[in-house]
Amino acid sequence: MKFTKRLLCLLIALAACFVIVSCAKDGASDGTDSESTKATDTQADAPSTGGDTLDVSVPVVLGEAQYKSVYDAYDDTTMLYWSDASEADAKAYGDKLTQDGYAAYQTVDGSAIWSATYTKEQTVVHVYYTKALSEFRVLVSDNASLPAKSEEYVKVCDASVTQLGVDLASNSEGMGYIIQLEDGSFVVIDGGSQTNSDPSELYGKLKNLASSAGLEAITVRAWFITHADAEHYGVLNAFLGAYDSEIKVEVFVTNDASDEVYKSVGAFAGGFSFSRLEGTFGGAKYIKAHTGQSFSFAGVSMNILYTHEDANDMATDSLHSKTAMVLDATVEETRFLWLGDIESDGAARLVSMYGEGLKCDVLQISAGESMGSEELYKRCAPSTVFYAGTAASVEKCAELASIKYLAGTAERTVLACEGTYTMRFSDIIDIGKGTGSVDADSRYTEDY
Fold first, then answer.
1. 107 pairs with which residues across the strands?
2. Domain 160-447 sits in which CATH superfamily?
3. CA 204 to CA 396: how far, in whole Å?
4. What is the dihedral of CA 429, 357, 372, 288, to 10 degrees?
5. Average pLDDT over residues 310-335
6. I need a surface site. Which of 58, 325, 392, 412 has the fewest CB within 10 A?
7. What one-character DSSP code corresponds to residue 198?
8. Is the pTM of this model over 0.90?
């Protein structure tokens, strides 16, 4: 990406704290790193794709330090990155934004991440500081949607989580989860691969759960997509044609790298743009999620813990294996952590970011080639683990050290190859109350 002559002059002179940062919508930039910046300290750059120019105005100085790198985060989003930052400087940056007319929309001060989201006209700026690593990031987006704030609701059921069974007939991999909220509406995570049975199974389970809560309509408050692997988002293709008029989806939430990144490494995601989901299923919005953002639904709070924007020091030729979004859901004191397909280096990144803050009650085991890492799972220390893989993949990973560790420490393992399971959050820790039943499609469902 090319900077204007005026921008170069301003950066060299450091005469002002605000400049116009120009980038291609689908391009990337090396920034204007100082001579002391090492290549291993900079954000991995996506290949440039050209396109129209997006101009945004934000501070480019944190404390006394200019940003180290700028990164095209896709979907009209530009990221500025600082290392060796302080939390005080990060919060002072937020103060600069408010002084420049930005309004604070959401602030989250967690044990590992401080984050804040600001809006000004059509511009959204999300900033977050990673405390253990002293790293600060600024994400600037044009016309971005925001997480809905908490609202009052009427409780009609206990919150529950369902892991969808994989298609045994086709031996197809696929990850799909349903959270039923206390008002009877839903959160969907991924949904599974596109097979003949997955779309109807997901719809049928949503229908049955809504009916059990006394509701006829199916409302999905948010559909989270961990990353652009067809085994995770593929069911959406079928849903778009078959169930667009049957259910209402309020928002789709993901953070994907550009198709050009995937194409550059011959990866699987090229050709599907998640932003095209906007307007489907009764007017759904599209939210590009960032680390530190929090979502509040009826009785369930969810947090974004990791996206590809955190993949610092990672080479472009392996970026496709590190784009899985990591998130959690908490109901009262019970925490469920989803890893998507996080790989070993992404797992190491999570450990360095959160440490003991990864402790959870339930863990979705990563389905990536390296299956996460033993160190990550030691920090998570779950009592229950979920795995959305086929019987063949279960057998294949059984000898991995990380999986052996979980097998020896977790009290319960729930396998998608054994059927569809629904468990209330309130009963997850008390794992001895299950009663099972066989559905019409011969899939076993264990209800708690």
1. 116
2. Ribonuclease Z/Hydroxyacylglutathione hydrolase-like (3.60.15.10)
3. 31
4. 100
5. 72
6. 392
7. H
8. no
